[in-house]
Write a structure and sequence with these properties.
The protein has 700 residues and is of the alpha/beta class. The protein has 30 helices and 14 strands. The radius of gyration is 32 Å and the shape is globular.
Length: 700
């Protein structure tokens, strides 16, 4: 291996680079880009900067001969073509920087109307810079373009050509999370270059470009033929920004396709399988990255698919990754070596997941939900096994996205409503089960809605009110995910199991056990917030608003509630303020109560009101009369609108209560608890039990 250091100018001389299909796309974010820029700007003249390693594999002639645009440069201009095994992120970043530099030079007023061949950066014309680092057009056949850097079979390549290099090509562009990263990086360099010239001058920018091309040095390792390039990729890439398990799995599956025996028909099938893998990953990343500002997590999706596709085995840590990368999709399973699927060591309790970081969690019972599946022999992995797996993965991606963003789906209105509810209350570990219900075409809309209703009730009562551990009943649900997807179990059996699990320990047939809930609320009051800090408060108040809307038969909801909407256009107000002014009417109204009792009143459920818009800062500590009716200035112009012009919850408060006292807070709190009894099918023992839950037993 040649260990000489090379400048980027050397790296791109007579060379063409491609990112192979087993690699992930561009993953650098602003912090890495800022490091690159800072290194460049702060680098002294005539000092070299080592930027890392490039591991390259020669592209076989059978591959590059299919590159119509580049073939002429390789055959007639003595270019060499390489796959980038390691160093993609740095190389891509350099190309984006060069493109931003070229774009800025084109926009510079001094060069308006000047040909690229007449613009010089040091001793090299701009057209030669473009030829070397970006793309070169065939002078005789201009439609033949040799791109000096690109991707193999990836949407990122089309995006790079059309959106970054702004070339007029007929291809449509599919945007993904990786193309979004390319766009953000290009914008970063556009901004930095513009600012740099504004603070310095165009000549210093040219000097900066010279530093990037001549002073940024890399070490090049050429990987020999026959070397396990896939293992090298996994090992090398984990030194930098770590690959996700989903990215590693794609590389692994493509590697496995190379292990099947040769033969004319077998080769065709193998090539088709490799294409299927690439197509599946395109679909997966399309859906995971569809919301570009909030992409869905790779590993959460992969773990959910593992639960759905394979026999569930609970284990702490990266259990799913260990199974997929170290047991299922490994070379010996393709080559015919037998091994065991799991050992007794794999049988342990499920992975804890924090469902709500704002809430304390306590043990509800002593149930130990431990998986005890038998040890099974591994079957030999056929090409059809791999194809079936990647098809399942790509099919699931769409439903995974829509389970997070139901408003974008073509699901029925009722399905969207209940998915919306599950996302707002905190879907916990039930998302794979929800997705499996959509992937099983034997489940009707009605049964799916019943399933969602039971899941929502389970989450509300077990996690939000009774403080169960985050893993309560998780293993049993995970086992049912695969069975429901594989149609080995009816959805009614899953519905009954979830319902019975709640009833078993809530004892809802007699009365709701309030002790765990009171214990939870005591801790929240000890922190000085009471119900205001309860994780389910916003959800409960919104469901109450929905209930009032249905009663009024007025479905023009005044409260806007969107999944992951930022900023949310709702807020929760303490009607009796947390910090009333000393001269306000509030102090007269609550003068007979101790400071501790006032704290309970302020933080009580009945004192919390869901506002239709962000009125909270305007209402502040005004007296109840002003809050109810609104306030105008001396000219009669509205300062803010009161409860009488708000949500259904607000207008009901304004209509039902002429004044706001301790008894009013108790009365409204009891009404909200009655609503909760009906909404989630629970029963408190009596009114005194409700007063204890509200912490208002001191009110006569």
């Amino acid at each position: 291996m040649d260990k000489q250091l090379f400048s980027m100018d050397d790296v791109f001389t007579k060379k063409i680079y491609r990112i192979p299909d087993y690699q992930r796309g561009y993953a650098w974010g602003r912090s890495q880009l800022k490091d690159f820029w800072d290194d460049l700007v702060s680098l002294p003249e005539n000092v070299n900067h080592y930027t890392g390693l490039l591991s390259l594999e020669s592209v076989p002639s059978k591959d590059w001969t299919s590159w119509r645009g580049e073939r002429w440069t390789i055959e007639k201009q003595d270019y060499s073509a390489y796959y980038v095994v390691d160093g993609q992120q740095r190389l891509t970043t350099f190309v984006l920087f060069v493109q931003s530099f070229v774009d800025f030079i084109h926009s510079w007023q001094e060069y308006s109307g000047v040909s690229d061949r007449d613009i010089y950066i040091a001793n090299e014309s701009l057209d030669r810079i473009i030829d070397k680092f970006l793309y070169e057009m065939n002078r005789a056949q201009p439609y033949l373009v040799a791109y000096k850097f690109g991707y193999c079979d990836d949407p990122s390549f089309e995006y790079l050509k059309k959106k970054i290099m702004k070339l007029d090509i007929p291809n449509s562009v599919e945007e993904t999370f990786y193309t979004y990263n390319l766009s953000k990086a290009k914008c970063f360099f556009d901004e930095m270059i513009k600012s740099y010239v504004e603070n310095n001058n165009i000549d210093l920018l040219k000097s900066l470009f010279i530093k990037a091309t001549t002073r940024f040095k890399v070490m090049i390792h050429y990987i020999d033929d026959g070397f396990d390039v896939y293992s090298a990729f996994e090992t090398m890439n984990n030194r930098g920004k770590k690959l996700s398990n989903l990215e590693l799995l794609k590389s692994r599956l493509i590697y496995l396709t190379t292990l099947y025996p040769n033969g004319p028909e077998i080769n065709d099938a193998r090539d088709q399988l490799r294409e299927d893998i690439n197509t599946a990953w395109k679909a997966v990343y399309k859906w995971l990255g569809k919301k570009k500002d909030a992409p869905l997590n790779d590993d959460e999706f992969l773990r959910a698919n593992w639960i759905l596709r394979f026999q569930f085995s609970s284990k702490r840590g990266n259990d799913y990754a260990d199974f997929l990368l170290n047991k299922e999709f490994i070379a010996r399973n393709v080559l015919g070596c037998q091994s065991l699927l799991s050992d007794a060591d794999d049988e342990c309790q499920g992975l804890s997941e924090n469902l709500d970081q704002n809430e304390d969690i306590e043990d509800l019972n002593d149930e130990k939900d431990v998986d005890t599946q038998p040890t099974l022999p591994v079957k030999i992995l056929s090409q059809e096994d791999i194809r079936g797996y990647v098809i399942c993965l790509s099919n699931m991606a769409e439903h995974w996205f829509y389970s997070n963003y139901p408003e974008d789906s073509d699901y029925t209105d009722k399905e969207k409503l209940w998915l919306d509810r599950l996302n707002h209350i905190g879907i916990a570990y039930f998302r794979p089960l929800v997705v499996a219900s959509f992937m099983n075409n034997e489940i009707s809309e009605g049964d799916r809605i019943r399933l969602f209703e039971e899941i929502e009730r389970f989450i509300m009562l077990a996690f939000r009110m009774s403080g169960a551990y985050a893993t309560y009943h998780q293993n049993e649900i995970n086992k049912k995910v695969r069975k429901l997807y594989a149609k080995e179990i009816k959805v009614n059996a899953v519905i009954d199991d979830i319902h019975n699990q709640v009833e078993k320990w809530l004892k809802a047939e007699t009365a709701f056990d309030t002790k765990p809930f009171i214990s939870k609320m005591q801790r929240l009051y000890a922190d000085g917030n009471g119900y205001y800090a309860w994780g389910a408060l916003r959800y409960v108040l919104y469901e109450y608003e929905r209930h009032l809307t249905d009663e009024a038969d007025d479905h023009q909801m005044l409260v806007e509630w969107q999944v992951k909407a930022e900023p949310r256009k709702i807020s929760i107000e303490h009607i009796y303020p947390q910090n009333p002014e000393t001269s306000s009417e509030w102090n007269n109204t609550f003068a007979d109560y101790s400071e501790e009792e006032k704290s309970y009143l302020k933080g009580s459920l009945g004192n919390m009101l869901l506002l239709s818009i962000s009125k909270n800062s305007k209402l502040q500590n005004y007296d109840y009369e002003d809050k109810k009716n609104g306030k105008t200035d001396e000219n009669g112009k509205s300062v803010f609108k009161g409860y009488c012009e708000g949500s259904h919850s607000e207008t009901k408060v304004a209509k039902d209560y002429d004044s706001w006292t301790a008894n009013t807070i108790l009365s409204r709190g009891l009404s909200l608890l009655s609503f909760m009894e009906e909404r989630w099918n629970i029963k408190f023992v009596d009114e005194q039990s409700k007063k204890d839950v509200l912490f208002l037993g001191f009110i006569k």
